[in-house]
Amino acid sequence: SYQTIRPVSIDALVVDGNDNPITGATVQIKDTQNTNIIFQQVSNSNGRVTGSLSLNTTETTIYIYVVYNGQTTPAKAVAIRSE
Q1: d(CA 38, CA 58)
Q2: What is the Cα–Cα distance from 41 to 78, expressed in whole angstroms?
């Protein structure tokens, strides 16, 4: 059978410019169209965000944002590999 959904594991560390972990930053991941939030989590006391999401096999890129102290980073585009 042909799989139309694939799992993607998330394991990220949110750090400042000095590589110090940031607690309480919101990490958002948006879909290929950069419109729908498909994952959102707040970094823990070690600055880590972990989890998983399910992506449609048609998704080719995801966009990652970090929101902290009212500021949002520019989007980081990440290409999705086909397995």
Answers
A1: 14
A2: 18
**Nearest one of 48, 61, 45 to 14, comparing CA atoms:** 48
Reported as type and span, the H/E element at residue 63 is strand 61-68
Element (H, E) at 18: none
**pLDDT tens-digit map of 27-41:** 999 999 999 999 999
For the full predicted model, state whether its pTM sits above 0.85.
yes
CA-CA distance, 68 to 22, in Å (whole number)?
9
**Phi/psi at 46 (5° precision):** -100, 5
Record the tokens describing residue 57, joined without a space.
Answer: 């096999």
Q: What one-character DSSP code corresponds to residue 53?
A: E
